[in-house]
Amino acid sequence: MLIGEFSRQTNLTIDTLRYYEEVGLLQPLRTAGNRRQYQTKDIAWVNFLKRLKQTGMSIQNMQYYAQLRYAGNQTIPERLLLLQEQETRLDTLMAETQASLDFLHQKMATYREMQKANLPERYNPEV
Q1: E strand map for 1-122
Q2: 3-class DSSP state of 13
């Protein structure tokens, strides 16, 4: 399929697809007239790239991953390592986010208790 159809199928702009090609994330085939020719398997690859982006993976790591992927299956150990490193980043982020949520929940519980106790308006808790 040509770039316009591929853009519709992947929900990415043509400019984004061209950028992905420029930075090495995509390597579409070319027609005799030098037009980009995408295959169905490229949709799965772009969807995977979109998921990597959602995980917060840096463009540099995505480029390295793509380079490894295009080099073949002998690079699976390196790809696995990249994914494990991203998993560690996400685990850390989740723990930090959970700690922030716990803090907010605790503060909200304090305020709810204060509302129930009908404390005077001028009462000023720690914060």
Answers
A1: 29-30, 36-37
A2: coil
